[in-house]
């Protein structure tokens, strides 16, 4: 299956400042991918280049095997919902649907009409009078009715209240199942990623710290707690992601494919949030730390 996104030494510079640099990643199609990392990691820049809104300064990127925004056929494959789910305040809901139909040759008018009706949105209402959750749902409807192969969403629910966030993500997951979409979703809200994403990418300082299927990542990462121990005394197949020490105790987060039999350790599973934070806090060149989990 063609990768939904491939990047090799990808970079984007604004004047003297690099927003993304030397980013290399391959993401398989057929997943709901959660892209997470601190502010300034390059998430938005990466997604805008994938959508064809920005050109690389260096390196290369392809989406579904083609160059972003290379022509009408490539543009039709990609739907994009930007931060703050922008819509036109002075246009009505119906105006937005008519605009979507004019701009997208593969527009699914029935999908858009039925989804707006199911959401209870009045087609005559101006977008500026809608709630934040309703504007987000309108933006999602525009992205879905384009009938793309991959839908890119950049922090789409960050400003929504918990109920609106849940409804947005529920609608997204229903569309994924119905239309067999690949999704790239960036978010700071790890709890939302746990509910929706089956593939995870942690991006820090433009570098992919870890990438892989969420279930596999969680099954191969463990927290070890026990008497204080030098990291070099851990077995070679235990790749250290993070290490914390008190005077008497050590706590490691490690990745390993092998069972852990050392009776000195208390072994516990990680939550997705634990995993993300461990890689976000990881030093740039940790001892035996893994940068990418193989598929």
From TrEMBL:
Domain of life where this protein originates: Bacteria
Organism the protein comes from: Nonomuraea endophytica
Residue span, ABC transporter domain: 5-230
Gene3D superfamilies: P-loop containing nucleotide triphosphate hydrolases
GO MF entry, a single one: ATP hydrolysis activity
Annotated keywords: ATP-binding, Nucleotide-binding, Transport
InterPro entries: AAA+_ATPase (IPR003593), ABC_transporter-like_ATP-bd (IPR003439), ABC_Transporter_VariousFunc (IPR051782), P-loop_NTPase (IPR027417)
UniProt keyword Acetylation present: no
SUPFAM superfamilies, per the entry: P-loop containing nucleoside triphosphate hydrolases (SSF52540)
UniProt name for this protein: ABC-2 type transport system ATP-binding protein
């Amino acid at each position: 299956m063609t990768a939904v996104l491939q990047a090799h030494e990808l970079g984007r510079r604004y004047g003297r400042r690099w927003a993304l640099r030397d980013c290399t990643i391959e993401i398989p199609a057929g997943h709901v991918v959660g892209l997470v990392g601190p502010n300034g990691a390059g998430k938005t820049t990466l997604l805008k280049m994938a959508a064809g809104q920005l050109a690389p300064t260096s390196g290369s990127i392809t989406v579904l095997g083609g160059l972003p925004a290379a022509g009408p056929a490539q543009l039709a494959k990609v739907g994009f919902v930007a931060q703050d789910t922008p819509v036109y305040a002075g246009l009505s809901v119906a105006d937005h649907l008519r605009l979507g139909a004019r701009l997208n040759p593969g527009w699914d008018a029935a999908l858009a009409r039925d989804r707006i009706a199911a959401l209870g949105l009045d087609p005559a209402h101006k977008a500026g009078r809608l709630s934040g959750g309703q504007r987000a749902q309108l933006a999602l409807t525009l992205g879905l009715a384009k009938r793309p192969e991959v839908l890119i969403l950049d922090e789409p629910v960050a400003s929504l209240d918990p109920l609106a966030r849940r409804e947005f993500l529920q609608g997204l997951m229903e569309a994924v199942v119905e239309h067999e979409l690949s999704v790239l979703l960036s978010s700071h809200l790890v709890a939302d990623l746990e509910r929706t994403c089956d593939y995870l990418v942690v991006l820090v300082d433009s570098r992919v710290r870890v990438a892989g299927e969420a279930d596999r990542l969680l099954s191969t990462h463990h927290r070890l707690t026990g008497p204080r121990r030098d990291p070099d005394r851990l077995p070679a197949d235990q790749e250290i992601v993070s290490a914390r020490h008190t005077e008497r105790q050590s706590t490691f987060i490690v990745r390993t494919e092998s069972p852990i039999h050392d009776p000195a350790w208390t072994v516990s599973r990680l939550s997705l949030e634990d995993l993300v934070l461990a890689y976000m806090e990881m030093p740039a060149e940790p001892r035996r730390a893994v940068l990418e989990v193989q598929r």
